[in-house]
Amino acid sequence: MAAAASPPNLLLIVVDQWRGDCLGCAGHPVVETPHLDRIAQEGVLFTSAYAAVPSCIAARASLMTGLTPRHHGRVGYQDHVPWDYPVTLAGLLADAGYHTQAVGKMHVHPARTLLGFHNVVLHDGYLHAERRSRRNYDLADDYLPSLRSQYGPDADYADSGLGCNGYAVRPWPYDDRLHPSAWVTTQAVDFLRRRDPRRPFFLCASYHRPHPPLDPPRDALDAYRDKTLPPLPRGDWDAHLPTPNRGLDSPCPTDPAQVDRARRAYYAQMSFIDNQINRLTHALHQHDVLENTVILFCADHGDMLYDHGMVAKGLPYQGSAAVPFLLRCPPSWGLAGGRTVNAPVELRDVLPTLCELAGVAVPASVDGASVVPFCRGEAPSGWRRHVHGEHSGGARSNHWIADGRWKYAWFSQTGQEQLFDLENDPQECHDLSPHRPEVLRDFRQRLVEELEGREEGYVQQGRLIVGRPARAVLSCLRPAETA
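Structure (tokenized):
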């Protein structure tokens, strides 16, 4: 790889709840992402990328700190836990001379915690906990004042009538330019205008969509109206975890027509974001920085989207835990584009990857590893055998191991085990745990090794223990008196 004449600019695009299979370049039969596909032609697509804790807060902790969940302490979903990490991606880059900016979703606490960024323009979506705790939500959100400046003081993010975790559908009721995805792009483009031109920049453009509400602009939704959708995967184990009730404001319809609309709306959200990413790359070209800008596209987690009768995230299955991970370096660096890599990668790898590309030393405390050698066509020595993932949540509390070929899942409160051959069964329709005992034993032992010494007591005398209380945060994040 040819060395850059100067430190490259870094554009990190993070999307919320975007499935790993939902890219045209990944072979999806329906979703249209031509602009991301074009980026992939000059980059590397990692096809076994995961969020180790597939829900918003914990996944972003891995992304921003480079730590495993065991070390950053977030192993489930819990609001209002402070973010007090000494090492962050933005902080390392800022200390190295980068001008750092975040736009869009952060999902940290307190809401305007900078995490090392010089500035944050914030939109986290509709956060129930934040709304209840503030008299003036504008103090925790920069998007709402923009909406109200156009449509009056009573305009709100929820005017579509949809809940922020539901699967009902209605097109965006206002001008497309004020859709949250368009607004994030506008703010990101404006940073390119007002950045310090003497310094390289690190811009994180963080989109709340395609996370519900399913409110794409009408034109984006119409583009999917007549498409033929593939049948939903159904497996030999589907009764294991039923679709949960998402609450009064966020229903999960089961009527086939409404499920069909939800899937189309989800894909429409993606295509609209794909167009917004093209706005961003146009702006990079206009400011004459595209040819020295690294672009990394990823998501915090996926969405089951009615696969096996389930929705949302927090589960060990591909729809929930697998994420897109696409890295494009400037073509002048001489890297072959259009490559795919099946090695298991995780969101904790974003920090060391971008730091290596920027020439910034990575502290020894960071758990992730740079994927840059893969971009050179090399197989890094000692690369991890697998990703260990987990998520607490009552009877659905789970741990899993994925290595690019096999997926093993263990539900800690029930003892249920599952085994999937992802190479031959990518939609996880056939649980092979009764049929491949030797593979099951191997992966069970891998999980024992991952969980050995955990404070919850998941392992005793070398065996997994069923029924141990699952926690959303570990003791390193809890006050001493409650640890």
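The two ends are 48 Å apart (CA to CA). The first helix runs from residue 34 to 41.
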